[in-house]
## 1
Amino acid sequence: MDGAFCFRNGTQLSKLIDEAGIITRDLDCCNHRPAVASLLRLALPHVNTMPPSENLVNEFGYARQLLHTDPGGRFSVMTLRWMPGACTPIHGHNAWGCVGVLEGEVGCETFAHKTRDTEPGVPEAPCLVSTGKLLAGPGTVATVDPDPCGIHRIFNPTQAPATTLHIYGMNLEAEPEGLNKWYQH
Ligand SMILES: [Fe+2]
C-alpha cells in the first residue's frame, strides 16, 4: 500500500469506502479481495461506526445492517452485531469477502466438502467436515473466497456483544438475500 492508503490521520468510514471504490474500479478483479483486505487492516482501528440496532437481531442472535453499496455495484459494506451465544448457520458466500472485528471477539469455524463412503453402486453422498476454529479480536481481518470455498459459520462464544465490519464483492442493495449459500450439517 502506498501513501494514498494511509489512515493515520483520523480516517472515517467514508474514506475506507472511497479507497475500496478505487481498488475495485482500477485493479483487476482477481486482486480485489487481497487489496481490500490490506485496506481494511489499515483502516479498522480508525473506523468509528454505529453497530446495527439490537432490535434487528434475528433468530440466530445477530443483526446486520447495510451501510453502503458502491454505485457501480462492485462491492457493499455492512456491519454486524453479534450477541452472546450468536451462531450463524453453516454457509458460503456468493462473492469474495473481507471481515474485520471492530469490538469484542467472534469465533469462526471453517468447513470443507468431503465425500461420505457409500455402498457400491450407491451415489456418493457429499457432507461437510470441520477444518478448524479460531477466535478473533479487535483489529483482526479475515477474508473469504466465494463458495464452494470458504464455507464457515461465525459465532460469539463470549459474554459480551461483538461488532464486525464486512466488505463483499457484490451489490447487496440489488440482491439483499443473494450473499449467502446455506448448508445443512
Ligand atoms: Fe459468512
## 2
Amino acid sequence: MPADSMTKPDTTTNSADATPAAAAAPTPSPDVLRRWLRDMMLIREFEVRCMQAYQNKLAGGFLHVYNGQEAIAVGCVAAMRPDDPIVTAYRDHGHALARGMSPEVGMAELFGRIGGCAKGKGGSMHFFDVDHHMYGGHGIVGAQIPLGAGLAFATKYRQEVMEGTRSSRVTMAFMGDGALNQGAVHEAMNLAAVLDLPVIFIVENNLYAMGTAIERCTAAGAHITERAKAFDMDSAVIEAMDVLDVYRDMKPIVERCRETSRPCFVEMRCYRFKGHSMSDPRKYRTHEEEERWETHDPIERLAAHLVDQDQLTGEAFKAMGKEVRAEIRAAVKAAEASPPPGLDELYHDVYTDTWGPYTGTSVPPFMRRRSSDRGPQDV
Ligand SMILES: Cc1ncc(C[n+]2csc(CCOP(=O)(O)OP(=O)(O)O)c2C)c(N)n1
Ligand SMILES: [Mg+2]
C-alpha cells in the first residue's frame, strides 16, 4: 500500500461511554476464502464485460465500474447476515452481486431490458434487489445515506414496536468520499446518533470524487473518521484492498452495532482501478500512482494468500477464472435475449397505487383503453 495514504487500522471507540467490545471474527475456512475469491473474480469479470458492452453500445446512460474495490463489497457482505439491509451509491454492481443478485439480472438491467432487476428502467446506477435486501443503487451523491438511516429506523421500529422483539438487524449505508460534504449525510448521521439507529456508515475512500482528489475538497481529508466524534459515534479505518482485513475488522463492528443498536462510521481505504466513469481520461492522477495501487489488487492478493497456504493451486485458480468468464458470457447472452420493456411499463412501479394520481382523462393516452377496461387502481 502506498505509505503516504495508508495507516494502520484504527478501531478506536469514540463514544464517551465505552461500547462493549464484540468477539473477534471467526477465522474463515479455506472453502469460504475460495468462495470470496470467486465472488471478487465474478464482480471483476462482470465489470470487464460491462465496459465492453458499453463500448459496443449495448448499454446506455452512465457506467461506473468497481474494479479494485471488490474486497469491500465481498468482505462487508460476509460480515453481515443475509437479511441485513444495504444501500449504496451508483458504483453499485459489486454490492448487488456480492449480495446475491444474478449476473444475468444485473446485465439485463444494464442493457435496459425487461429481465433486469428494475425491468430495465433503472440501468447501471439503480441495481435494486429487495429479496436480497439490497436497496439500490442511487445516483445523487449522498442521497442514499438518509435512506440508510431510514432503513435502520424501519427495521428497529418493526422489531421493537410492531413485533415487540429486540432490534437485531444492521444496515450498511455505503458512500464515496465525495459524499462526505453533503449536508444530508451529516443530518442522517446526527439522526442515527440521536435515535440510536443500527446503521454503519461506510465511506469507500478511493481518494477521488470524479477528478477531484480528496485533499482538494475535503477539510481534514486525511482524518475523516474524526467527524464521527461530532456525533459521539464509534469509528474505524480499514485497509480495504484485502478482503481478509475488511472481514476481520467489520465482523466485530457489525456485531457490536447489532448488540448495542448504536451507529458507527467506517472509512475503507481503497482505490478504483478504472476512471470515474467511461468518459474519464484520468488526467488528474499519474500512471505511477495507478501502477502502485494495482500491485495491491484484492483478487491477486487473496489468490496469493491461498496459494501460499496450500489452499489453492495455480490450475484451480485458472479453472475458477474460466468458470467465471463462462458465467458472465452466459449472462450477457441472456440479457441480450431479454426484450426491452413495453411502453406501458413507463407508468408502472412509479407510485404505490398502480396509477398514482392519474385518474379518468388524466391517464396517459396510450393507457386509457386499459384503464377504462379495468379501472384505474386495478391493473
Ligand atoms: C448531489 C450531486 N452532486 C454532484 C453529482 C455529480 N457527481 C456524480 S459522481 C460524483 C463524484 C462522487 O465521488 P465519490 O463520492 O468519491 O464516489 P466514487 O465515484 O469515487 O465512487 C459527482 C460529483 C451528483 N451525482 N450528485
Ligand atoms: Mg471517491
